[in-house]
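Example record

Each entry pairs one chain with its bound ligand, flavin-adenine dinucleotide.
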Amino acid sequence: MPVVVPKVELLAFTGGEKIAALAAKLCYSDASISDLTDAVAVSEQEKFLATLNRMRHHSVFEHISFTFGIEGVSRAFTHQLVRHRIASYSQQSQRYVAHTGGFDYIAPSSVAANTEALEKYNEIMNSIAGSYDKLAALGIPAEDARYLLPNACATKIIVTMNARELLHFFRLRCCERAQWEIRGVAVEMLKKVVSLAPSVFGLAGPSCVSGACSEGRMSCGRASENRRKFEELRTSAMERNARL
Ligand SMILES: Cc1cc2nc3c(=O)[nH]c(=O)nc-3n(C[C@H](O)[C@H](O)[C@H](O)COP(=O)(O)OP(=O)(O)OC[C@H]3O[C@@H](n4cnc5c(N)ncnc54)[C@H](O)[C@@H]3O)c2cc1C
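Structure tokens for the complex follow.
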């Protein structure tokens, strides 16, 4: 069955801006940690963290951690995701989870929008599913039968990243240069975290959101449009959170 909509859920969030602010204060103070904990007033956190962000004193953001559950995505996507090394991953196994009786798969919109292409695409997926079932019936273990499965095959993954790595991830993967699937997921992840740590993620997004585009002659040339888009994304995420 084709699956087209990825689902991104924020499963856990630890640390928060207070911890990052506390860690930064600790660097510049001889006070005890408990005195500092009391001293980190919520009101001044925002300004302080925004300054750290501008100074790129990003190591303190490593104390803030987010865990996401992501499903309805392809193996092509997860292959790109796991290239981000400063993170922890747990992915549904094709060795231990058999894909008999048909498997879910992702249809790119370029394929889905073209009736003839979609028909061919679905036909090949069904043929792979049939061959997979045939191997399973011949006693071939799932770990070997999976060599037939395509990049399009749907999968599920849990990922934990700290806020510093997330900023880096958003810079690369919210960019128009990133492929549509990982870009879509990255934008959903950003929507989930921005209202939880606005001083950290206030300028998160592709490089053009916080400065010059880093893509050189590969630039999409839509920096102003992107700045507006990510500003709107932040505003609506903050409003949504305020209503909860
Ligand atoms: C548009 C786009 C196209 C791409 N095309 C290709 C492609 O054709 N082929 C391909 O193979 N990959 C490709 N990639 C993947 C890319 O090369 C990176 O592997 C991926 O983006 C992970 O980024 P990263 O290495 O910066 O960061 P992460 O692994 O997320 O690490 C974060 C940062 O930590 C530091 N770091 C982490 N590990 C090390 C280390 N071992 N040594 C030193 N510093 C380290 C680096 O500063 C790094 O930027 C592409 C990525 C994008 C966004």
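The pocket of flavin-adenine dinucleotide is lined by residues 83-86, 165, 168, 172, 177-178 (CB under 6 Å).
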